[in-house]
Design goal:
It is a single chain. The protein is built from four helices and nine strands; from the N terminus they run βββββαβαβββαα. Strands 3, 4, 7, 8 and 9 form a five-stranded antiparallel sheet that branches. The longest helix has 11 residues. The radius of gyration is 16 Å and the shape is globular. 27% of the residues are buried. About 3% of the residues have low confidence.
Length: 171
């Protein structure tokens, strides 16, 4: 079912972004409700698109299927994306948000957001003690970027009663 903005209704999560052996790897899962498996990904880091990603799609994901049985191909919706990067590129993207749009039937799904956390400020102890709920900030960063059209050059003031769950991914 296409959404009013033309995107495909989908779910997903970036589980890790890490650098090893001169390769940046992004791992996670994504599935649509009715448009088949992911056919491609559009990836942006620090406002820059990168070509040359090696994508492994349709990895087993019985845990996702158990939680989201209504998603098409939920049993095989994990992915691993890797890109060779130079040390200069790595230094440029440290602490960056990694934006991944899954593509279904030539249409974009919902934005997935992860962070390349090497050398990032540690998660505040207060957040770590709450069971890791700080990761929900990545989900909301996707909303800010996708629906609020938040740009990397803009500032955000986070006012609330929590410990900065929304602000952390934007730092």
């Amino acid at each position: 079912m296409p959404l009013s903005d033309g995107r495909i209704a989908s779910r997903g999560w970036i589980e890790s972004v890490h650098y090893s052996g001169s390769r940046l790897t992004v791992e996670g899962w994504s599935a649509s409700y009715a448009h088949g498996p992911v056919s491609d990904f559009l990836i942006n880091i620090n406002g820059r698109g990168f070509d040359g990603w090696h994508a492994i799609r349709a990895l087993p994901s019985p845990d996702v299927a158990a939680v989201y049985p209504d998603l098409a191909f939920a049993n095989n919706c994990r992915f691993s994306l890797s890109l060779p990067l130079s040390p200069e590129d790595i230094s440029w993207i440290k602490g960056a948000l990694v934006l991944v749009y899954p593509v279904f039937s030539e249409r974009l799904g919902h934005l997935l957001v992860g962070m390349f956390q090497e050398d990032r400020a540690p998660v505040p102890a207060e957040l770590a003690l709450t069971g890791g709920d700080w990761e929900r900030g990545n989900e909301f960063a996707a909303y800010f970027i996708e629906y609020g059209e938040l740009k990397p050059t803009e500032d955000v003031l986070d006012i609330g009663s929590g410990f900065g769950r929304m602000a952390y991914p934007l730092t």
